[in-house]
Amino acid sequence: MSHRLPRTALALGTGLLAAGAMTLAATGPAAASAQAASTTVTSAGHHFTAALTGKATLTAGAVTVTCTVSTSGGTVPAAPGNSNASGPVTSTITAPTFSSCTSSLPGVTPTVTTSGTWTVSMQNGSPITGSMTMQTGGLVVTTTGLASCTVTAAPTGPASVSGTWTNGAPSTLAFSKASVPVKVVGGFGCPTSATSSAFTATYKVSDTTDPASQITVTG
What we know:
about 10% helix, about 55% strand, three-stranded antiparallel β-sheet
């Protein structure tokens, strides 16, 4: 096997970091322009869970890493905190968990651990956006097998991944090639020059206080 094979596998493995997985404080010029819209998240004070639907898939060339289980949870702020006249509504969430992760490349096994306080921010607009923020070093991927490396997301400060929110029964939050900064350390075969990773997945967000209700985002 060539020296390039484990390096490709690990580059893909770092893609898992953008999940932080899910997983939902947008940054940059696009986010700044969205701050003008008013946002209301309902139902106020209700607990919710976010669960991966289908698979979280990360692809680099012909190699794919897939996770089939990812969950998190939180609480919509109580009124009047569930409304913001000129920006997003933010909630604290549990650090998302990721499991049942595999690589399409034989011999490489990824493991994901998360920690710290995470937040999710919902911003009304067209489209409605949902962005998740992790604290410094809040998500770490380790790999074993053909290459043994440690990949840390948000290595120098908090980082966010942004997705598109769709109201429904249940509502969903979809990430498409969301990017997050990473730092990679390790020995032979580790892609130590990698500085970012990408993630694609869709989560169903359900109201657990009243299962007959929906978590929705409006103006």
